[in-house]
Amino acid sequence: MGSSIHKSVCRVCHGGCGAIVHLEDGRVVKVKGDPASPVSRGWMCIKGLRSPDIANHTDRLKKPLRRKGKRGGGQWEEISWETALDEIAAGLEGIRKNQGPEAIALGQGTGRHHYLHVVRFANALGTPNWYEPGLAQCFIPRITVSNLTYGGFVVADYYGDVKPSCIMFWGHNPLISNADGELAIAVQRAMGRNCRTIAIDPRRTETARKCDMWLPVRPGTDGALALAMINTIITKGIYDRGFVEEWTAGFDELKEHIKPFTPQWAAGITGIKANDIEEAATVYATNSPAVLEWGLGIEQNINSLQTVRAIALLRAITGNIDIPGGDIIGMQILKSYPLLKEKLPPESSKKRLGGEEFKLLGGWRAYIPSAHIPALFRAMREGVPYRINALLIFGNNPLLTVANPRNVYEALNRLDLLVVTDLFMTPTAALADYVLPAAFWTETEHLFGFPLVAENIAFAQPKLAQTGDCRQDEWIMDELSKRLNLPGSDMTYRGIYDYQLSSMNMKFDDLLNSGHIYPGHRYRKYIKSGFRTPSGKVELYSSVLKRMGYDPMPTYIEPPESPVSTPELYKDFPFILITGSRKREFFHSEHRQVQSLRKYSPDPCAEIHGSAAKALGIAEGDWIIVSSPRGEISMKAKITENIHPSVINVEHGWWFPERPKEGFGLWESNANILTNDSPPYNAAFGSYQLRGLLCNVKKRLFKKYVI
Q1: What 3-state DSSP class applies to 390?
Q2: Among 637, 655, 658, residue whose Cα is nearest residue 595
Q3: What's residue 260's pLDDT?
């Protein structure tokens, strides 16, 4: 076969850097950044550069496996794809006929190439019950609020001729996370152009360290801070009067509403000085064009809807929407993915777990209606309101990535059928009845628009290599659809790509030849057609939320577990816990078996402020116990001044692939043992508190951790 070099797009995370892939006899041997990429321009993170080490890893799953013996016993037999798909399809058909399609659930990982295909498969199957670990806890609140407020999703304009004069990072660390096609290198270049920068985060993250201002907000109080900033901007009269008067609805109501929410009021809640709140708001409002980069840190609490709403309004009152160098509404150049939602019967939609209660997560106005995760796993465990008998997982490891893993473990063990598709054997896959080998990004073909949801640029990813009998997740779903004779089974994922490109008179093969299509951005689209909201304007006062029974104006509530809400608990757990910080070497729970990546972060770490560590007698590198009212985990202390003194930051997604005989160390350093999926929930999205929880820390006396 010889040597060859190909252009592609790296999807080792959901970033999307342009890639140059070198093959030797059909095997990936080298990956470099593509200088011709319109977004990454030759840059690539360590994960992408080490893609050959992942693709060629000796522990890759290469054949379909069927369980032998007891669940979790580690005994498997290799079977053919035909046998695996026939048996899985037969199991699904039996459950559909006897218990109903809603008794089958689908799960998937965040931002995967097969994301929308899973939703399509669920609708065709007739089940309303699919999940992804983020959703209510990540991204769906931001997408939904953007649609309700501006009539479209917004992303930062780093690629036009006009560059931002100010960037405010809110609960977001893009220099590490490379979120959703908004790549670190673009952010870094924008920050280096005489741009004023502000970071709002309990940690002085890698991004925050490069910023002019750092506001270490108390976790869970972001909504109060945003309201105080709105108060400052309106009270000082530094809002964009022309834009507000012509293109917003509800300003008078907002002006009256925010009067009590002064910087002094917020200072007592957030722990940030009133003067700093005023300064940050003033810098953002008076340096146009400005970008407001927001991350999932603002969504992982029960006030997710109104926190995101308050932050969204900052863009509106400063006129930084859809202008060059500001936050721009997406072009959406691809046709919408055909999700077959019309094939899901109304009676099935009504059975969606959590759908009736959480209208913006599972109801008809939801962006992509999905099940409420706590309700879904409860249905597996307890059969309430009905039993979930089967779960098909595509690229997800819920024992590491869903809150309260002990409940998840019990739920998975009660299933009649568990199928996991993944690159490697994981703690979740180890409990499955069937484990299917997934294709790596160099082994898939895919069409996607970037940034995610906005779709300003379309990329085509070619299949370049083949490892064992690994298959693309979409192919697996298509094959099951054929066997089950589901609606839409006559259109493969390849046919869908052609359909999505048809508005541009292209087919997927055409785009494979050119690599990408970038038609250019049109700014201030609202001047011609207004905003896609009921009023045709940016809705500061949300008429839709009002009709749905939610507060049309952003409000603040204290987290249910906090030094303020639960002072007695705070005596025993005197620190505030945050989890979920990213590591450049890993993607959530992935890649810890890849030594060329693991060597940079060999152990699970918890960040603790120097003053707190000194008081507890903890030194750098000591093993410590981090505990919450729900359990305890073992971590290695990382002492830093770049964190609020009262906050402990725990890395998430930790397991130990090198220890299969010990259950992969699932219960040892799993951050979600400390978290909680219990009510209260956000009334609209069902979000629950994952940040701002209470915890304690002590030095571990023995290196060997005993469960």
Answers
A1: strand
A2: 658
A3: 98
Q: 250 exposed, middle or buried (CB, 10 Å; 0-12, 13-18, 19+)?
A: buried
pTM exceeds 0.85 for this model: yes
Helices (H), 318-396: 346-349, 359-362, 373-382
- Tell me how long the chain is: 707
211 Cα distance to chain centroid? 24
Q: Cα(556)–Cα(561) distance, rounded to whole angstroms? A: 15
pLDDT score of 675 more than 60: yes
Looking at this protein, which amino acid is placed at residue 232? Answer: T
pLDDT tens, 305-350?
999 999 999 999 999 999 999 999 999 999 999 999 999 999 999 9
pLDDT at 179 over 80: no
List CB contacts of 535: < 8 A, sequence separation 6 or more.
249, 543
Residue 645 buriedness (CB in 10 A; 0-12 / 13-18 / 19+)? middle
The label of the residue with tokens 């060859």 reads 4
Q: Which residues contact 35 (CB under 8 A, 6 or more apart)?
A: 18, 41, 42
Band of residue 416 on the pLDDT scale cut at 50, 70, 90: very high
- Between 110 and 441, name the one with better pLDDT: 441
At 110 the pLDDT is 84
* The residue type at 601: S
Residue partners of 58: CB distance under 8 A and separation at least 6: none
Look-up: residue for tokens 């890849």? 594
The contacts of residue 263 (CB under 8 Å, 6+ apart) are 228, 231, 232, 274, 275, 277, 278
Report the relative pairing of strands 457-461 and 446-450 from DSSP bridges: antiparallel
Q: What is the pLDDT of residue 702?
A: 66
Cis peptide before 602 (omega within 30 of 0): no
Helix (H) or strand (E) holding 191: helix 184-191
What secondary structure, in 3-state letters, does 599-651 show? Answer: CCCCCCEEEEEHHHHHHHCCCCCCEEEEEECCEEEEEEEEEECCECCCEEEEE
Number of H helices, E strands in the chain: 26, 27
- Contact partners, residue 616, CB within 8 Å, separation at least 6: 697, 698, 699
Helices 222-235 and 274-286, interaxial angle, to 10°? 60
Tell me which residue has tokens 């037969």. Answer: 90
Confidence of residue 174 (pLDDT cuts 50, 70, 90): confident
C-alpha 470: how far from chain center? 25
